[in-house]
Amino acid sequence: MLTQREKTTTVTMPLPSPPRFQTFAYQFLLLSRLTFSPSLFILFFSPSRFLRNTRAAVHWLFFLFCLSRSSPGGWATMASTRATAVDGDQIKKPQHKNGKTNGFNIAKNGHSTTSNGLAETYKKDFYESFEATPLIAAILTYMSYILLTLVGHFRECMRYYGLEKFHVQDEPKKEGFVPLYQSWESFYTRNLYRRISDCWNRPVATVPGAEIDILERVSPDHGWNYKLTGNKIRVMNFGSYNYLGFGENTGKCTDEVEVVIGTHGIGSCASRHGLGYLDIHRELDLLVADFLGTEAAVTFPMGFATNSMNIPCLVGKGCLIISDELNHASLVLGARLSGSNIRVFKHNNMVDLERILKQAVIEGQPRTHRPWKKILIVIEGIYSMEGSICRLPEVIHLKKKYKAYLYLDEAHSIGAIGTHGRGVCEYFGINPRDVDIMMGTFTKSFASAGGYIGGSKDLINHLRLNSHSTMYSSCMSPPVAQQIISTIKIISGADGTKEGQKRIAQLKWNVRYFRRRLNELNVIVYGNKDSPVVPILLYMPSNIAEFARKTLEKGLGVVVVGFPATPIIESRARFCLSASHNKEMLDRAIDIIDEVANHLGIKYSTKKMPIFSEDEVELIK
Fold it and tell me: Looking at the domain assignment, is residue 41 inside a domain?
């Protein structure tokens, strides 16, 4: 039986017609219904008292005025509108004039090329797996965390009474001051995270290529402090998101970066509004816009700030943000900083997204029921912890249907998917101008730093003038910008070679092969068959530490993730595939995973997987 989460990735639901929008009179009735009810009672049973009630009289006069200004049909129209708001399948298509919806003019952005047919047919080759957590694994995981918490409280008591050494620097108590840190976060760090802290923050001594050197370290006090031994451990790198293998210190990109260091130096030493905007930044902006297929683009020195500092420039009070529940922390922070109302829909669940959109259009803002100033849908191209790909054709269909804007974060998808590495729009065959705000970062496929936003010229000019990231931070470092320029030219083939196409095809082959082999091991694997982010489920906190330590001993470097970065019963190991991995590395990694999975007993998968093969990918020599 499929879980609810699996249903959202396999079932295609018919999309009902758009709702009939409320008349102004109906909105006013909703706003003042608490006042009208007693006023109506007074009107029928005491007319003289009603006339003396100035407040009620004014309300009713204004209501009758609104009713006269509303659409023909008066009370019947309001009654039918209220009835259709309950049953979505019976809602009739609204009559929009000049793109005006819910009281506001919505400008058309780009060409309309996405049809409902595309939203239905793409699923024939679209497969994602989210197998439900086995009951026994969930029970053992909860019991493990409960036991660790109880033991942690016991040890806290021992430290308080001096029976155990307290290794944490104790901040002196200040009379009259509230605690600066939350007690639960500190407790969790001391008693749960500290036990397995050696699994993270491992110092790396080489470039993030297919193989890396990790500096060996030991802890004499069980995770409180670490000391380097001076030894290096050579491991295969399956933890860095170096998707196209440009994280290297030799080759054409490195040579061009060295030249720019000689001409432009290391830093820009000023903001874009000051003297920090160099010729290399202008070249980068134009190149990014051309690569994305948008009218214009603007780049930023930090990927996280590209989301957190620009979303508040686009929406604010009186606006609604509809966000996927698994969106990145930078998107969540940007939404909160904007001051907009935020509603969350279930991951990749188009039925839930339409329900929220329909409700937002029908009911409007809380209490006042005025129409929202803007509605912004925020999604990612590839979700970094799940390995899933957004259902872009359906999202675009819904955003056009309800006249909402779309913000697409392609941090992990740009360069990694699509025939020419242009992200999810190319992957689904969608015109990029159907996406209002295209955001991405240069830290993954481009092996650099910073981020970008692409869109219409009006949008980009607005961000250049109003974004906190352009106004208050220094411009991107010139060698960093040159690294991006060099990689984009290689990916797009502007350098006159097929190196970019070769890397894109190799990455896709690696992803298909690695996922197929993992499915054969009967471990639970999350994500889309074409996603280079490949999570396998570990569940218990002890498995997190044991998996990370055992794989490192056997020469495999991987990232493990647990609560609170994931749900408490969905701890996982995250593998990031790269074009720099060869088949021998993939086979060796699979053998190590198989051995460690048998040791930990995490082969819980009972789901029959559809057949997909790496043989469908044509490699370029």
Answer: no
Tell me the two tokens of residue 488.
Answer: 């984009």
Query: For residue range 432-476, what is the model confidence (pLDDT) as tens digits?
Result: 999 999 999 999 999 999 999 999 999 999 999 999 999 899 999
- Helices then strands, counting H and E runs in the chain, come out as 23, 17
Phi, psi of 110 (to 5 degrees): 85, -175
Total count of domains within the chain: 1
Eight-class DSSP state of 169: P
- Among the listed residues 445, 552, 107, the one whose alpha carbon sits nearest the alpha carbon of residue 295: 107
- What would the two tokens of residue 259 be? 């030249």
For 101, the token pair is: 């919806």
Tokens standing for residue 195: 């036990």
Q: Where are the beta strands (DSSP E) in 489-542?
A: 527-528, 533-537
| Domain span at 397 | 252-492
Q: Is residue 385, in this structure, part of any structural domain at all? A: yes
Checking if the pLDDT of 21 tops 50, the result is no
Q: Is 177 a domain residue?
A: no
User: Minimal CA–CA distance to 596: which of 523, 520, 526, 512?
Assistant: 523
Q: 122: exposed, middle or buried (C-beta count within 10 Å: 0-12, 13-18, 19+)?
A: middle
Instruction: Dihedral sign for Cα 242, 244, 250, 254, please.
Output: negative
For tokens 């298909």, the residue is: 512
Question: 85 in the Ramachandran plot: left (φ > 0), alpha (ψ -120 to 50) or beta?
Answer: alpha
In a domain, 156, yes or no: no
| Spatial distance between the Cα atoms of 361 and 344, rounded to a whole number of angstroms | 16
Q: 24-54, pLDDT tens digit by residue?
A: 443 444 344 434 444 444 444 444 444 445 4
Q: What is the CATH number of the domain that holds 351?
A: 3.40.640.10
